[in-house]
Specification:
The chain has 181 residues and is α+β, with helices and mostly antiparallel strands.
């Protein structure tokens, strides 16, 4: 009997602490019942060169893949290089609606939603890759005041020739971005 009273007392005290924290931060006592959208950014922020993003395509069903080093090609444009022998190109050609999630250093946390299209197949200097542009309609801002993103997905290079190949594709994408401006 004494144990259950002690447990209840701890719960009441914890409830008091939560109530005090809500009052201090001026949060509502009850969470909203209606869905709340994310804040949106007007333009894409800069992100580190070595950012790994996640591309979501929707055809025939949702599918997510990691994408190396997306290139910011303007306030609302992103360029990617995608392997030609994978299913992502087929899926985005079937349904061009995509989402690209970028979590990167410098407190970048966003989801760019828009329409993708192939702009070079194959990519100049990279016969096994295609260049894809995403024309961004909405930029969901997923940053949170209580947390800062210091770094995104990190990986270790184990094949220097593949790194050099990635760097050359990114240089090509950046040149394509400059030509479009």
């Amino acid at each position: 009997m004494g144990d259950s009273i002690g447990v209840r007392s701890e719960r009441v005290m914890a409830g008091d602490a939560v109530a005090e924290a809500r009052e201090y931060r001026q949060l509502p006592a009850d969470p909203p019942t209606a869905p709340v959208g994310h804040p949106e950014l007007r333009v894409l922020p800069e992100w580190p060169l070595d950012t790994i993003a996640v591309l979501v395509t929707a055809a025939p069903s949702l599918h997510a893949i990691p994408v190396s080093w997306p290139v910011r090609a303007g306030d609302r444009r992103i360029l990617l290089s995608l392997r030609r022998n994978r299913g992502s190109l087929l899926r985005l050609r079937s349904n061009a609606e995509v989402a690209l999630t970028i979590i990167g250093g410098g407190d970048v946390a966003l989801c760019a939603r828009g329409t993708a299209r192939v702009v070079a197949d194959p990519m100049p200097g990279a016969e096994d890759y295609a260049a894809v542009v995403i024309d961004v309609d909405v930029i969901d801002d997923h940053r949170q005041g209580a947390f800062l993103v210091e770094a995104g997905i990190q990986r270790t290079v184990v094949d220097e020739t593949e790194l050099a190949y990635l760097e050359s594709r990114v240089a090509t994408l950046r040149e394509m971005a400059r030509e479009h401006d």
